[in-house]
Design goal:
756 residues, alpha/beta, FAD/NAD(P)-binding domain, TIM Barrel, 2 domains, 8-stranded parallel barrel, 7-stranded mixed beta sheet, 28 strands, globular, Bifunctional salicylyl-CoA 5-hydroxylase/oxidoreductase
C-alpha cells in the first residue's frame, strides 16, 4: 500500500493499515524533511480523540501526554472582552503530532521515505494494491485525474497568515481590530504549555483591506512585525514569529468522487473546511480511521473504497456547510460590528450553526442569560416568545407560519379545507399565520386549485377564515400573500406534476419576456404597457378585498419566478424598454405595484415583500442585488423583507442545508437595518432562538414543521417550560399544555441485589 503525503492524515492512515494487518507493506512518501512542518498548533475534538483511543491506544496515550486543554472562548471587540465557557478544546503542536506519528509508524514497520517525491499515482497504482493520496490542498493526484475525481475549487475573499506567539493564551481568543484600512481579526489558541507556552495566531482580513494596508508589498518578517503591532494588546506587546508563513486565500475543495480505480483521496486532497472551525487535521484523521475500518470490513478494495466514501461524505459535507457559514461570517464581519456587544459575541459563537442557543445555554448559562437580557427577554422567556412590532401590528411571538400552496380551492374560493388548515395553525400558537399565494386574477393562478381575491365570493370566504382566527385564537395575526403566477401558471396540481403544464384547459400566460419556464412549458406573451397597467390594477383591487376580508398584514410576492419576480431577475427579464436592463429598471414595475397597493392598504397595517435573494444560477440575481432590492422596497414603505431564494429558473443549483437561506436574510438585515423574515430548513425551536438572538433575523417563517405539527409553536413552548403570554394555549386545549408522561422506562430501576 502506497501513501502519498506525510501529513497527519497520511501518517495515521499508514499506521492504522499496518496495525490492522502487519503483513501489509505500507510505504509513505513525503517530499519534505521529517522536521519540516507548516503551521503551528492542531486542535482535535473529544469525538475524534475517542476514535483514536479505540483504534490505536498507543497513539492516544502519546497525544494525551502532550495536549493543552482549555474551556473558554474570549471575544474582544471595541475594548470589551466577553468570555464564554464550557467549550472544551484540546491542542498540541503540529510538529509534536508528526513526531508521535513518525514514531508509531516506525514501531509498526511502515516505510517512511522523506525528502522523496512520490511517483505519480497512476504509476504507483500499477505496482501497489492501494494508493492513498493524502497530498494536500494542492494535490497533484487530484489534478492529474481531474476527469475522474471531478474537483471544484473555490477561492475565497479573505487573506490570512499562520503565525505563532511564544506564550500561551488562557482561552481561544478572537480579537477584532478596526484600523484605518478596514477590519482585521485575530484567531488565537494555545498549543503548548512547556516553558511560557506557545500559541497559534492567525491574522485574517478581506483582500481589499490587505491591499490597502500594504501587506501585499511586505515580506514574511515585515508582515509578522506589522501584525504584532496591530494586535499588540492581545499579545501583551510580545512579538510574533513565522514559519515560511505567507498570506493566502482559503480554498474550499470539493470532489464529486473520492476514488479512481485503486487510488483514493484523503484529507485536504478530497475536501477542505475553513480553519475557523478547526477542522482540517480532524477531518483527515477521521478519514484515515474510516478508510482503515472499511478496508478491514469489506471483502475487496473496490467495495472498501465505496463504503469509505458512503460513510464519510455526509459527515464531510455537513462539516463543509458549517465551515462555509463560518468563513462567510468572517468575510462579512464589518456588517456586525455595530451589534450590541453581547449579541455580537453570541453571533460569533453561533456563526457556523453548530453551536446553538440551547447548546450554549448548557455550556455557559450565565453568558447566555446576559445575551438574552440585552436582547430584551423577560425572565423565563425564550427569544422566540418576545413580541415584535411592524407598523401598527404587534406580534406576540417571532414564529410565522410560512405561505404554503394547498392547491385545494374551487374557482379560487377557499373552502372548508382552508378554514381547517389555517385555523389549526392559528390555534397552534404562531404569532403570524400566512395564507398561500392568493392570486389577483383568474389568469394569474398557478393551478386550477389556487385561491384568489378577484371576486366578492372569494373575499367573503376569506373573511370566514380571518374571523375564525381572530375569534378562536385571539392574539394571532393572519396575513395574506398576493401574487400573480406569470410564466409559471396554467400547470398541474403539485402532486400531479409540479410545474408541468395542464394537459388541457390551459389559459394564456403573460410575463416580462416571452421565455418558457421549462422546455415543455407554455411560452408566455410579453406584457405591453396596457397589460402592465391592467395587472397593477388587479393587485390594487385584490388588496382592497384583502382589507375587507379582515387580514392584518399584506405580503407582495416578488419571489420564486412568479410575475413580479420575473421582472427582478436578469435571467427572466430581457426587456429593452423602461422595465428591463439595469436593476433599477427591473425594479420599476414591482415598485409601481407596491406603491399602488400601499396607497389603498390601511396606513396602520404593515406590508412585507417576499423576494428570491439568489437565483442559484449563473447570471441571475446575486446577494448584492438582493440587498439593493430590499433597500428599494424599504424606501417605498415596506415594513419587512421576507427573504427566500430560488425557484426562478428550472436549472437552478441550490445549496441546500440547515437554515440554508438565512445568510441572505442576515446580510440584508445587517447591511441595511431593514427587518427581515428568514425561511428555509429551519426545523427546531433551538434554531429559531439562535437566529433571533444572534441578530440574523427578526422573524422565523416555518413551513414543513407546521405541516408535520400544526401546534409546533405551542409544543416548542411546552418543551422549553414556557407558559407566558407569547404562547397562550386555547382554553379548549389547555389540558394538553404539558408534554405527556412517558412509560416507566425512565423510572429508577428496582434494586435486585445488595452491594457488598
Amino acid at each position: 500500500m502506497a501513501v502519498i503525503g506525510g501529513g497527519p492524515g497520511g501518517l495515521y492512515a499508514a499506521a492504522l493499515l499496518k496495525r490492522l494487518d502487519p503483513a501489509r507493506e505500507v510505504t509513505v512518501w513525503e517530499r519534505n524533511a521529517p522536521d519540516d512542518t507548516f503551521g503551528f498548533g492542531v486542535v482535535l475534538s473529544d469525538e475524534t480523540l475517542g476514535g483514536i483511543e479505540h483504534a490505536d491506544p498507543a497513539v492516544y496515550a502519546a497525544l494525551q501526554a502532550e495536549f493543552v486543554r482549555w474551556d473558554d472562548i474570549d471575544i474582544v471587540h471595541r475594548d470589551r472582552r466577553h468570555t464564554s465557557g464550557g467549550h472544551g478544546f484540546a491542542a498540541l503542536g503540529r510538529r509534536r503530532l508528526l513526531e508521535i506519528l513518525h514514531a508509531r509508524c516506525r514501531d509498526l514497520g511502515v516505510q517512511l521515505r522523506f525528502r522523496t517525491e512520490a511517483e505519480p499515482a497512476a504509476t504507483l497504482a500499477t505496482a501497489y494494491d492501494l494508493v492513498v493520496a493524502a497530498d494536500g490542498v494542492h494535490s497533484l493526484t487530484r489534478e492529474a485525474h481531474a476527469e475522474a475525481f471531478g474537483p471544484s475549487v473555490t477561492t475565497h475573499r479573505c487573506r490570512y497568515i499562520w503565525l505563532a506567539a511564544d506564550f500561551a493564551f488562557d482561552a481561544f481568543r478572537f480579537e477584532i481590530a478596526e484600523t484605518e484600512y478596514g477590519v482585521m481579526q485575530l484567531h488565537g489558541y494555545p498549543f503548548s504549555a512547556a516553558g511560557r507556552g506557545a500559541s497559534t495566531v492567525i491574522v485574517e482580513m478581506r483582500e481589499e483591506v490587505w491591499e490597502a494596508a500594504g501587506f501585499d508589498g511586505l515580506d514574511e518578517r515585515e508582515s509578522t512585525a506589522r501584525c504584532a503591532k496591530i494586535f499588540t494588546e492581545a499579545l501583551g506587546g510580545r512579538p510574533l514569529r513565522g514559519n515560511k508563513s505567507a498570506w493566502i486565500n482559503f480554498r474550499t475543495v470539493v470532489n464529486s468522487r473520492w476514488s479512481h480505480g485503486n487510488t483514493v483521496l484523503l484529507g485536504d486532497a478530497a475536501h477542505t473546511a475553513h480553519f475557523s472551525i478547526g477542522s482540517g487535521t480532524k477531518l483527515a484523521v477521521e478519514d484515515a480511521l474510516a478508510l482503515a475500518a472499511c478496508l478491514q470490513e469489506q471483502p475487496d478494495i473496490p467495495s472498501a473504497l465505496q463504503a469509505y466514501e458512503t460513510e464519510r461524505r455526509p459527515v464531510v459535507e455537513s462539516t463543509q456547510r458549517a465551515a462555509c457559514a463560518s468563513l462567510e461570517w468572517f468575510e462579512r464581519l464589518p456588517d456586525y460590528l455595530d451589534q450590541p456587544p453581547r449579541q455580537f459575541a453570541f453571533n460569533l459563537l453561533t456563526r457556523s450553526r453548530r453551536v446553538t442557543h440551547d447548546n450554549l445555554r448548557l455550556r455557559d448559562a450565565h453568558f447566555t442569560r446576559s445575551v438574552e437580557d440585552e436582547f430584551g427577554c423577560p425572565d423565563g422567556t425564550p427569544p422566540m416568545f418576545t413580541p415584535f412590532t411592524l407598523r401598527g401590528l404587534t406580534l406576540r411571538n417571532r414564529v410565522v407560519v410560512s405561505p404554503m400552496d394547498m392547491y385545494s380551492a374551487e374557482d379560487g374560493v377557499p373552502g372548508d379545507f382552508h378554514l381547517v388548515h389555517l385555523g389549526a395553525r392559528a390555534l397552534g400558537g404562531a404569532g403570524l399565520v400566512m395564507t398561500e399565494m392568493v392570486c389577483v386574477s383568474e389568469r394569474g393562478r398557478i393551478t386550477p386549485g389556487c385561491t384568489g381575491l378577484y371576486t366578492a365570493e372569494q373575499a367573503a370566504a376569506w373573511r370566514r377564515i380571518t374571523d375564525f382566527a381572530h375569534t378562536r385564537a385571539p392574539g394571532t395575526a393572519i396575513g395574506v400573500q398576493l401574487g400573480h403566477s406569470g410564466r409559471k401558471g396554467s400547470t398541474k396540481l403539485m402532486w400531479d406534476g409540479i410545474d408541468d403544464p395542464l394537459p388541457d384547459g390551459n389559459w394564456p400566460l403573460s410575463a416580462p419576456s416571452p421565455l418558457p419556464y421549462k422546455p415543455a412549458s407554455q411560452t408566455p406573451r410579453e406584457l405591453s404597457r396596457a397589460g402592465l397597467t391592467e395587472i397593477r390594477e388587479q393587485f390594487v383591487a385584490a388588496a382592497r378585498r384583502a382589507d375587507l376580508a379582515g387580514f392584518d398584514l399584506l405580503e407582495l410576492h416578488c419571489a420564486h419566478g412568479y410575475l413580479l419576480s420575473g421582472f427582478l431577475s436578469p435571467l427572466t427579464n430581457h426587456r429593452t424598454d423602461a422595465y428591463g436592463g439595469t436593476l433599477t429598471a427591473r425594479l420599476r414595475f414591482p415598485l409601481e405595484v407596491f406603491d399602488a397597493i400601499r396607497e389603498v392598504w390601511p396606513e396602520e397595517k404593515p406590508m412585507t415583500v417576499r423576494i428570491s435573494a439568489t437565483d442559484w444560477a449563473d447570471g441571475g440575481t446575486t446577494a448584492e442585488d438582493a440587498v439593493e432590492i430590499a433597500r428599494a422596497f424599504a424606501a417605498h414603505g415596506a415594513d419587512a423583507i421576507d427573504v427566500s431564494t430560488g425557484q426562478v429558473v428550472s436549472d437552478e443549483r441550490p445549496a441546500y442545508g440547515r437554515s440554508y437561506q438565512t445568510p441572505y436574510a442576515d446580510r440584508i438585515r445587517n447591511e441595511t437595518g431593514i427587518p427581515v423574515l428568514t425561511v428555509g430548513a429551519i426545523s427546531s425551536w433551538d434554531d429559531v432562538n439562535s437566529l433571533l438572538l444572534a441578530g440574523r433575523t427578526d422573524l422565523c417563517a416555518l413551513a414543513r414543521p407546521h405541516l408535520y405539527d400544526p401546534h409546533w409553536t405551542l409544543h416548542a413552548a411546552a418543551e422549553q417550560g414556557y407558559q407566558g403570554p407569547g404562547a397562550p394555549w386555547p382554553l379548549q386545549y389547555r389540558a394538553g399544555s404539558r408534554r405527556p408522561q412517558t412509560g416507566r422506562t425512565d423510572a429508577p430501576k428496582p434494586r435486585l441485589s445488595l452491594n457488598r
